[in-house]
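Chapter summary example.
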Amino acid sequence: MMITVAIIAILAGIAVPAYNQYILKAHRKEAISQIYSLTERLERARSSLMTYASFDNYKSSEFTHYQYSIDVSDDGATYTIEAVALNSQKNDKCGDIVYRSDNSWQFAGGTLDEDSCL
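The structure predicted for these 118 residues follows.
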């Protein structure tokens, strides 16, 4: 009986951290999807208004895992979308997510590289 309990404890000790990392990764992928959605909205606005300026200083309401903000350059020609990790998502090894209109990604405050985070 004690051997069975010990085996279950060892398996739980391995499974729980792996599950937590899986959940953080799923939330990060959801944030990247949200960033792509915001990018589509920005590009539609630019196609009709010829500028991104209508989205300057956009800040989403706080979602459960990330808060999104858009910063448009002074000339309205470029933008940066930032997803700041909230609550338990701060434990993600990729950190906050930054996307720029030149299609570049940055994962600020994390320990993993871009390829691992995307």
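To summarize the output: The mean pLDDT is 88.
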